Amino acid sequence: IAIPGTYRVTHPYGQILFPNVPAGRRAINYTSDIGGVNVIDPAAAFVATLLSDVMNPGASIQTPAPTTFITWPNYDTNLDLLVDGKRYIGDPNVDSTIVGSPTGNNFFRVERQAGPGAWALVADTDLFSLSGRVFDGRAITAKTTYGVPPTQNLAAVGPVNRQTPFSLPGTPFINGPGGFDPAYPIGYPQWYADASGLELTITFPPMGISVPLVPPESFPLNTAGETFYWAAVASFDAVPAAAALAPLVEYAIEGTFGGDESIVDGNQITFGRLRIRIDTPVAGTYTVTHPYGTNTFEVDPALLADGINYTQDIGNVNPIDPDTAFNGTLYSIIGPRFLTWNTFNPNPVMNDPLLQKVNPANPAGPKLQYVGDPGIDHAVKGGTFGNIVRIVGPGIDVQTSLFSVMGQVVPARIIPPGGARSRSAVNLLLLP
Fold it and tell me: How far apart (Å, rounded) are the C-alpha atoms in residues 207 and 341?
């Protein structure tokens, strides 16, 4: 963008406004990926693509709109698009005009606001590179099979914090009618529970690392672009031999916003994360043993400078009925128990005094209980494969038993109607 200002982009499937764009390279860099993810039943998630802009331009989730694919003109009779008896809608190697835009915009146009109601043309084109093969109607003789679903590690997910479910008419709600706490982030489960029955809720500073609220989008939902129920990060600060590796091994149960990443109700998602980052001074095999498993990496000499950069995020995404997707986080690598300080006790009377804080909303009431203080490195318990992180590589063997841990135990006020909390795991299919 050469000139700062408000820009309007018109394309075959709609129009997007970009206010207050600064000058600079790639000042407008927009992606909207809409689809489903279902770690329990992968085939069930494909229908969510119908909610993308291409399949549902400008319409809401509840009222999908019919649409058409853009194609070359007369693609169905163009002999250049008939290859080995297979029909295509365009040749991606040849730029062409198009037809079929459901909005009538068979072009791409960028405009800058030049005044009230006035727009100055910046660039436009009616040429596109198209790729797509027409289904020939052949009967499917073999079905795709998927592997065994991942193991469910965490025990249960709490009710989504809503007065009414965010769901289509007739769609079953994940936990039935949930509790509602106006002081709690809207549209997220109130807690995740491990196999011991420990329930953790979204944790805010100073005992959490959630991003602060940013107006105006955050305030109605009482949340931010990134929130955490729990996190544990291995600390190698006291291990001099680890300095050259700059290791990062972290876990999290995290909440954020999917789709186009805008902070709007219905975009909330959660997932369980394992992240491993290591600078690798020497090529070879590196093995990372951590409380929830072991990961082995082969570092090629040609990629030595890239090091190890591994992230595993497990969760479900369902734009048709987002509240039903929160059960996917139960299947991440985290669990069956949360890592906590080894001095944590679920009985408030016996909990570590460092993990008890005055509730600013009720100073005279019970103290808030935490499983760790992220500002203090500490020994932990709860790991399935021990409570240390060890990195072994060519001439390298370093380990730590210290972690930065955060997570708030569910306060008594966050409960479903009737006072009973669900203990059963949720195994619903994500999509119809």
Answer: 14
215: amino acid identity, one letter: P
Tell the burial category of 367 from Cβ atoms under 10 Å away from its Cβ (0-12, 13-18, 19+).
middle
Q: Contact at 8 Å (CB) between 111 and 122?
A: yes
Q: How many CB atoms lie within 10 A of CB 68?
A: 13
CA distance 223 to 135: 44
Supply 284's token pair. 């070879």
User: Is 198:338 a contact under the CB 8 Å cutoff?
Assistant: yes
Sort residue 104 into left (φ over 0), alpha (ψ -120 to 50) or beta: left
Structure tokens at 10: 């018109």
What pLDDT shows up at residue 412? 63
Q: How far apart are CA 202 and CA 359, in angstroms?
A: 15
Distance CA 45, CA 33 (A): 14
Rounded Cα distance between 118 and 8, Å, is: 11
- Give pLDDT, residue 225: 83
Cα separation, 205 vs 223, whole angstroms = 13
Structure tokens at 84: 């080995």
Instruction: Give the CA-trace dihedral at 157, 163, 167, 168, to 10 degrees.
Output: 160
| Helix, strand, or coil (residue 256) | strand
Average pLDDT, 10 consecutive residues per value, the chain (432 residues): 94 92 92 86 84 71 72 95 95 96 94 94 97 86 78 93 62 46 85 96 86 72 88 96 96 90 86 97 96 97 91 91 91 97 96 94 90 97 98 96 96 50 30 27
3-state secondary structure of 328: helix
Q: CB 130: neighbour CB atoms within 10 A?
A: 19
Query: According to the model, what pLDDT value does residue 287 have?
Result: 98
For residues 195 and 428, give the distance between their C-alpha atoms in angstroms, rounded to a whole number: 19
pLDDT, position 98:
97
β-strand 356-357 against 226-234: which pairing, if any?
unpaired
Question: Residue 47 has what pLDDT?
Answer: 80
What is the model's pLDDT at position 167? 54
Quote the pLDDT of residue 181: 77
pLDDT computed for residue 60 by the predictor: 59
Cβ neighbours for 179, distance < 8 A, ≥ 6 positions apart: 159, 161, 190, 414, 415, 416, 417
Residue 340 region by backbone torsions, left for phi larger than 0, else alpha for psi between -120 and 50, else beta: beta
The DSSP letter of residue 417 is: G
Q: Which residues contact 425 (CB under 8 A, 6 or more apart)?
A: 152, 155, 156, 327, 330
What pLDDT shows up at residue 58?
60
Distance between CA atoms of residues 289 and 24, nearest Å: 44
